[in-house]
């Protein structure tokens, strides 16, 4: 017994000196002799935890669970370790066990709800919080977390309601104030947004989340210097805030600061899901690889944009395999006939590549200055079969709406705001190449004598190859920032892009030199002067069309 006590004291001293491995060796020997000793167990668990050996921690936590089945802290620790390992099912069971033991344990509801929100199980998170409320737990933190879930679901009125409920319980709940700021940013109520974000900052001036959202606020106001200041402050408080790194990178990229921008752009992987799970090593120019696997990422537009770099790689590899969205497969295969193009739906598991890289990471190596961009107006060289359209007037393909994006509403334009363009129908036949169903609005316009012609058999959403054939049969395209803009500009068709001023301003449309976009030299930009007001860009576009196209 005395020997055991001496060894236990020795192990405890080693722990104080952070010599965890030696302490574990002693404690595990002691535990083998006395498996009912909770002191040994708790210290073994602590040591493995400090060494970040979470699986080993879990093994001994289960021993402790058997000895002390109502030990709430042990279940919290178990849940945390399971979360770290990505075993969310087991983590959930651990937190639910706490609630079973203590139905009023606020922290268990908060921890479980936050985990579920972070893995995008929003409905399950809300259910957990509803259970807490049904147990008559009146916690501002519960209401704040519910508000955060509704923000993720873009249900801003509900989010607003629960943030205010939180503040009714604690007027100094800075996270609830922060949520109000985020809600008002998304509702474009900017005076309210900055007011509440500043309130949050006064209460808690060392939380990186508040600085992140202040950065987003100023970014949306097009005050890039102020935005970078707040993103930098966020990063100084917590360097792991990937959103701050990414937003800062997007500002640099939009200003043609490519070297600085590409570095931070890699933080997108902490915000978006990778399309390909592969153990292949990442490619870099100093390694002698022969066959590269390049996988598309983000939206269809970005896959088109970054595919413009593919030709830069051809001389470096015996074989290139590109994996993209199935809608782009046929187009890119014809454009790049020297490489293998597959879709994510294909079986590419047997592919014999010896390295990999995400498509968007190619810019880091190949687009570091304006001189790195090719001068060609036609990125995708494809000989399409010409579609037949009567050639009495100029032909214009028209696309005016974006969907499935946080900023879609800001990028889209109402057809009524294009009437000044449509009134040029004496000289131009307009054709509908919009990939959403707009028949109701087209019918209303036709009643006013402003017709946008439907193209029989065209399915712009599902059949991008046919859409490409149609685009190449047009004299020019008028579009907002969407897939159609990328497709048209990459095919070398004159493309006039109507852009929002701040919100919805995607960085690559700002990469212009002498009024020419570096990615798409055949695209001409018409940008709002005031956020949400399309009068200026549509008037400029009308004048441009009349001067340079109609009066040829």
Compute the average pLDDT: 90
Strand order of the largest sheet: 7-6-5-8-9-12
CATH architecture of the domain at 394-550: 3-Layer(aba) Sandwich
Biggest sheet overview: 6 strands, parallel
Please state the structural category.
alpha/beta
The general outline is globular
According to DSSP, the number of beta strands is 12
Unreliable stretches:
none
Write down the Rg: 29 Å
CATH superfamily of the domain at 394-550: Glycogen Phosphorylase B
Q: Per CATH, what is the topology of the domain at 394-550? A: Rossmann fold
Quote the distance from N terminus to C terminus.
102 Å
What level of helicity do the residues show?
Answer: 40-55%
Instruction: Estimate what percentage of residues fall within beta strands.
Output: 5-15%
CATH class of the domain at 394-550: Alpha Beta
Instruction: Provide a count of the helices.
Output: 26
Characterize the structure shown.
The chain has 552 residues and is an alpha/beta fold. Helix 2 runs antiparallel to helix 3 (38-50) and helix 4 (54-67) runs antiparallel to helix 5 (72-85). The strands form 3 sheets. A 6-stranded parallel β-sheet has the order 7-6-5-8-9-12, with helices on both faces. Strands 3-2-1-4 form a 4-stranded parallel β-sheet. Strands 10-11 form a two-stranded antiparallel ribbon. The relative contact order is 0.05. Among the domains are: 291-368; 394-550, 3-Layer(aba) Sandwich (Rossmann fold), CATH 3.40.50. The chain has helices at residues 2-16, 20-33, 38-50, 54-67, 72-85, 88-101, 106-118, 122-134, 140-152, 156-169, 174-186, 190-203, 208-220, 224-237, 242-254, 258-265, 300-307, 310-313, 326-335, 363-366, 408-411, 419-422, 439-447, 464-472, 483-490, 535-550, and strands at 291-295, 319-324, 340-343, 355-358, 394-399, 428-432, 452-453, 476-480, 495-499, 512-513, 516-517, 523-527. A hairpin with a 2-residue loop joins strand 10 and strand 11 (516-517).
